[in-house]
Amino acid sequence: MSTEGNVRVITTHKLLEMKRRGEKIAMLTAYDYTSAKIVDQAGIDIILVGDSAANVMAGHETTLPITIDQMIYHAQSVMRAVKNPLVVVDMPFGTYQGNSKEAVHSAIRIMKESEADAVKVEGGAEIMESVTRILSTGIPVMGHLGLTPQSIHKFGTYAVRAREESEANKLVEDAIALEEAGCFALVLEKIPALLAKKVAETLTIPVIGIGAGKYVDGQVLVMHDMLGLNNDFSPRFLRRYANLHQEYLKAFRQYVEDVKTGDFPNDNEQY
Ligand code: KIV
Questions:
Q1: How far is the CA of 186 from the centre of ligand 1 (A)?
Q2: Mutation probe of ligand 1 site: the residue of 44, 90, 142 with most atoms within 8 A of C-beta
Q3: Ligand 1, atom 2: nearest CA belongs to which residue?
Q4: Contact residues of ligand 1, CB 6 A cut-off
Q5: Residue 2 — very low, low, confident or very high, per pLDDT cuts 50/70/90?
Q6: Active-site residue 189, yes or no?
Q7: What is the pLDDT of residues 4-49, one digit of tens each?
Q8: Nearest Cα to Cα of residue 95 among 115, 74, 123, 61
Q9: Where are the domains of the chain?
């Protein structure tokens, strides 16, 4: 596959076609050049430069502290690496919620400085003015409902969302409103599978789940979690595709031992 100029192989239009054809969409987070390059080679459809970088790259408890400058830095690193997938950048906490004018300014900064393809925002009715204004500039927007980590202090827990009827009804209304506003896709995080199914069947735009079951149009995972780099985090929805924590530890320990014993470098590893 190749790109024509700067146009991605995967576009928002192609994602819509994939949903229509019933072809599942694979999305993964990435935050740096080296891993984004491998993710691209693996044939991923969407890379999310997630604000989960605050957790897995910077070690914060929540996603709230990450700044727009830091998100742009991660997005620029990813953009240098990839050719095929659509690259979506999370708008960080505090850059779009309260003020729709600031939201447009933040989204434009992200798009101009990173040259990414789209932005993602968390929330429904309460951020609709911001969503509409960002969309009016021609920037594609991905929505995110359910467990929205930027609202963790409001929720007070990372438990499954929308088990109660009233929250489930609001989630469906918000999903419809985001589609009607013009969002090109929606992430649903940690909600009951049957509720996610209802949303995916109701919307024409692709619905990508994380902890939202199998009836949606695609899946997203955080790279560090699915690679098993992060052993402390074991939610039920997470499938680990490797145990890189173990592999890293083994390699690092061997290196320490080799240096200490004088085994590294040997005669062939010097000039
Ligand atoms: O920041 C992130 O990684 C996300 C995913 C969990 C969807 O928003």
A1: 12
A2: 90
A3: 50
A4: 29, 48, 50-52, 90, 187, 189, 210, 220, 222
A5: very low
A6: yes
A7: 555 679 999 999 999 999 999 999 999 999 999 999 999 999 999 9
A8: 123
A9: 12-240, 244-271
Residue 253 binned pLDDT confidence (cut-offs 50, 70, 90): very high
CATH code 1.10.150.20 for 12-240: no
Q: Is the whole-model pTM more than 0.90?
A: yes
| 169-189 pLDDT tens trace | 999 999 999 999 999 999 999
Q: What is the Å distance from ligand 1's center to 69 Cα?
A: 18
248 C-alpha to ligand 1 centroid (Å): 24
